[in-house]
Amino acid sequence: MAESEPAAQPGHGNDDAAARTAAVPAAAAPSRRSVLGWGGAGLALGAAAAGGAVAAFGGASDGVPAASSGTAVPFHGEHQAGIASAVQDRLHFAAFDVKTADRAELVSLLKDWTAAARLMTAGLPVGEGGFGGLPEAPPDDTGEALGLHASRLTLTIGFGPGLFAKDRFGLEDRRPGALVDLELFPGDNLDPARSGGDLCVQACADDPQVAVHAIRQLARIGFGRTAVRWSQLGFGKTSSTTPDEQTPRNMMGFKDGTRNVAGTDRAALERHVWVGPGDGSDWMTGGSYLVARRIRMHIETWDRASLQEQEDVFGRDKGEGAPVGKPKERDEPFLKAMKPDAHVRLAHPDSNGGAALLRRGYSFTDGTDGLGRLDAGLFFLAYQRDVRTGFVPVQRNLARHDALNEYIQHVGSAVFAVPPGVRDKDDWWGRTLFA
Ligand SMILES: C=CC1=C(C)c2cc3[nH]c(cc4nc(cc5[nH]c(cc1n2)c(C)c5CCC(=O)O)C(CCC(=O)O)=C4C)c(C)c3C=C
Ligand SMILES: [Fe+2]
Question: Which of 71, 230, 307, 395 is 20 to 30 Å apart from 146, CA to CA?
Fold first, then answer.
């Protein structure tokens, strides 16, 4: 299958959006059911088939705004998919604790996960599929995504600080300086059960069942070697990387992501998102750093705030999303026209020494808090080249001065080093770290 595998693309970035069409037309994308006839092929053949499927549709890399929900986003590339690539509608994010103390076992887990991720992102079931294998053995795939399309599934892995701890996996010298333990910011009320993790996987898809299925397979494959520490479902993107599309709205009803880093803005990605060759940790070149924050919104209080107060809090109007004093959403904000504690004024790069983030967050609603209020908010995900010059200065500013703090609270937190992309069928998540 080597000929049909998408060729390794050294130096071929996922952000090179205009040059490639990564989207697989809905009609052409295989559904998981349509490939079940390949049963008996096993994981190895399945992996090759996945490569063939992607190659057949012309994809060699990701980072391209995909066209429709039936498409497959290529798994191989210089950068992992799920960062600069178009943001899908749904999220299942999971943080894992590594249970094994054996480095070789951890490496084999990462290889197994890579093989499964390669298949699932191509819309294929794991291994021999959900049925048709040995009657005496459990099926390789749990089956709940059979018949569903790839749904632009992306799986993005990250490595938490704990992986680099002394006397654990021999990685203490490999910890990047940019992967800092976050300080406790004013107002933080962090729940340890919703924070941290040795590994994370961000599963994004247009179909929630596809995203949930993917995390479940990885958890199942990891059994005994890793365990889910916490996970978060997200139902509506609150930022996009595709500025030509309509800007999504958050749970406070405001357009969110207007001034996000665009997935096609190569210069901004190189400057603010991708780790460069001179940044200090060679194994991270082409990767990025992820900050995840579970931010609870006190939406009942927010809903009683006047429209004027709501617009003052953000420094943008609610209908159009235009910055104060300007008529259109995309107009350049004039920060001094906003209240001194307006969120946009404080978060803007000009207020933070030029710091900029690629935001990829989702809304969540997780039942009630037991006090008659919805446990709702924003699961904030932000990618950056260095946490020290990305999230930290912005959040220091926001935590101290932001008018929005009256209506929100940070209740979960985690940081991860997100390694570069998997180049080809022989590559695997974390190779550059463990090599
Ligand atoms: C530390 C970084 C940030 C956190 C935490 C954060 C929380 C947060 N944001 C909103 C809603 C909006 N944010 C907007 C803009 C914006 N926010 C950040 C950073 C954080 N936000 C940045 C860098 C920016 C862009 C600033 C700029 O360059 O102008 C907006 C306006 C629209 C937009 O540009 O995206 C909204 C709305 C919520 C609700 C929230 C926590 C719950
Ligand atoms: Fe914000």
Answer: 230
